[in-house]
């Protein structure tokens, strides 16, 4: 069990926030992926549900966000609106130490217009489902030119739901030079195909136990 304070250059204010949330030691997936992500590596990570994958990509995403730039920098794609909300809730908690950091969710079932207005005001981290992200791209209420990190969360579920083509299409709207992080609970063959398409020399992190 390794403490969060062993992460190189982790801001003191983030450590204090983690402490108030009672997060003191990292889970195994966090221990193996946070530092390489902070170093800029692409990651192909597999660990079971409940093993703490959200903070494994969420902590680096929050640390790396430049709130001085009012542009989306990280986009996290999730299979469902419920998961998008869960991820947003967890990231908003740890981002409390950066009060100007804006996290916006994009999913169906709510009017496009309201989300478009929020996008126009600016957000740093976007969390959304493939269909709604594509809707915004098609209507040009969203551009992904300033994205430097793409996260695919629950990638296995997204592929089960038939989102392969949508994910590849969304990624094609982002700069080629970016970091891509793929997180999944299982590792079916389709994940390997998606990883080959989107990740560059990824570090492969597999964790078999739940902590
Ligand atoms: P996964 O995405 O792998 O299914 P989650 O990221 O949703 O898992 O985390 C599962 C639960 O564990 C959440 O309630 C989360 O707040 C908690 N958790 C995550 N990291 C830690 C940690 N380092 N210490 C204690 N609890 C944690
Ligand atoms: Mg998860």
Automatic annotation (TrEMBL):
Residues 34-205 form the Helicase ATP-binding domain. Signal peptide: none annotated. It comes from the Bacteria. Belongs to the DEAD box helicase family. This is ATP-dependent RNA helicase. It comes from Sulfurovum riftiae. The chain holds residues 1 to 211 of 452 of the full protein.
